[in-house]
Structure formats: structure tokens, C-alpha cells
Amino acid sequence: MAKSFFTNKWVAITGAAHGIGRELSRQLSLQGAHLLLSDIDSERLQEVVKELRKDNPNIFEWCIDVSNRQEMEHWVAEIKNHTPCVDILFNNAGVSVAASFTGHEWEDWERIIGINIYGVIYGCRLFYPLLQKSQSGRIVNMSSLFGIIAMPNQVAYCMSKYAVRGLSEALWEELEDVEVSVVHPGGIRTKIVDHSKSTSDAYQEHLSTFFRTKTMKVETAVSLILDGVQKNKKRIVLTNEAILFDRVKRLFPVWGNSWSYQQIRKSMKLEKVEKLMRNSLD
User: pLDDT tens-digit profile of 210-223?
Assistant: First the structure.
């Protein structure tokens, strides 16, 4: 086990059973971190923990719905039985819905707000006292490229990721004893699309194929995230395309959003499946 910046640090991760959360758990375990893992998918989480414990005994898991404040409070209370402080919190859990604005069901809005927004708020607020005790505590909030530019058919998801960005940037200015990083991943090779809801099966399959073949490997993305955390970066933007779109949007807030969307639309060949999305509402 290689000694690193993360060795012997207590690290909490939400959404640890899949995608970026799972890879964060794997890489941090290999670097000797003590991991406090949660996910609503208890079966997959147990598989992750079983694998990690072969090399690192300091892995602890909880089945948690991050949108439920009582469950989050219970998780933090139980963590105190293992450690008096937490060094790093990764608010990673998140979900997406592919639908037009009018195609979003009320339940979609409630689920996305609950997991993507309230889950992050609960994490920041409830872990804050434990992070203060670390003397070098850090919150890492997972936003998205869609917290920088906005896309059609992702209205609720964009709203939630802009909210995470706003919360994180406000905490930069307010918190004096805990550092805050916000991560804006572009296209990362995870199964977030497969685990998301869509009003069009064809649209979802098209996105799923793109994410499996045309995006940054999750191993690379997580290495960049951890490097950014170690270097105390407040903003961590992943993929060259996301960095470009970020710069364009900052220079040209209105035109830059439209231009960035058109580039994404072209690279992902969305024209045909967008028609299918609209037709699914007829």
C-alpha cells in the first residue's frame, strides 16, 4: 500500500457503489485512507467493500438515502463511534433524468432536488463539525459540466448542478476552517445514464453508447480529482471539452452557452434522438 497525502485520512463518500464514487473508494483505499462509504444500493456497496477489504481493513459501509435527513444524521452519529473527526467529505451521490421541461414528472423534480441538492446540503451541514475537528477538513462537492453550461432535456439536472456550484462557491467565502472544492466533470465513462430515467428509450440508449465509448475513463477522472484535492484546488474541471466550454461561457455568458450546447449536440449526434424525445411526449 503506497503512502500518500491520503494515507490514514478519514474520508466519507456518498454514492460509493457506482461510477466515480466507486473509483474514488478504490483509489483512496489503495492509498491507505480510512473509508466511510455510503450508498442506497446496499448489495453493490457490499460488493465494493468486500473487494476493498482484501487490502485495507479500514473500510466501513452504510446503506443511506442521502435525501433523507434522518438517515444522514444517523450515519454521522455512527461515524463518531469510529473517529472523532473526518478529513474529507465527497458529496458524490447524484441522479439524472433525461426529459424535456414539460416531460419531467413532479416525482422527477422531487427526486433530483432530494438527492442532488438536499443530499449535498445535508452532507455539508452535518459533517461540518467533524471536518472542523480535523484541522485540515475539506468538502468536495460533485457538480457537473452542466453546472457551467445548461442543456435542453436536462433541465432538472442542470438546475441541481448549478445549485451545487452556488452552494460551494458561497462556502468558499464563508467557511474559514474547512476548505471546499467543487468538481465539474464533463463526459466520464460511468453508468450514470444507465441508472437514470428517460422519457425516451432511444435517447437513453444513444447517450449510454456515447458514454461507454467517447468519454474520459473514470480511472483518469478520479486521479485528476484526487490530484486537485491534494493541491487544494477550489475548482476542478474535467475533460478538455469542459475546460474549453467553461472558458467560453465565462467570456460570453449567453452566446457561450448556446455555442457550447451546439458543440455538444454535434459531437454527440443528438439531432435524431432529440426528435424522438419530442415525439415521446405526443
Answer: 555 567 899 999 99
State the pLDDT at residue 134.
96
Domain limits, the chain? 10-279
CA atoms within 13 A on the CB side of 64: 35
Q: Are 273 and 206 in contact (CB under 8 A)?
A: yes
Q: Are 141 and 164 in contact (CB under 8 A)?
A: yes
**Spatial CB neighbours of 44, under 8 Å, sequence gap ≥ 6:** 17, 18
3-state class of 127 per DSSP?
Answer: helix
Domain 10-279 of CATH type 3.40.50.720: yes
Gyration radius from the chain CA atoms? 18
The predicted pLDDT at position 86 comes to 98
118 catalytic residue (yes or no): no
As to burial, measured by CB atoms within 10 angstroms (0-12 exposed, 13-18 middle, 19+ buried), residue 233 is middle
Q: In one letter, which amino acid is 69?
A: R
Which pLDDT value is given to residue 282?
47
Please check whether residue 86 is in contact with residue 128, taking contact to mean a CB–CB distance below 8 angstroms.
no
* Residue 241 φ/ψ, nearest 5 degrees: -65, -40
* Strand locations in 64-178 (E): 88-91, 97-98, 138-142
3-state secondary structure 37-75: EEECCHHHHHHHHHHHCCCCCCEEEEECCCCCHHHHHHH
Residue 236 has φ and ψ, to the nearest 5°, of -125, 105
pLDDT of 186 reads 85
- All residue ranges of the chain with pLDDT < 50 are 198, 281-282
Instruction: Please state the pTM of the whole predicted model.
Output: 0.89
Catalytic residue from among 118, 128, 157, 203 = 157
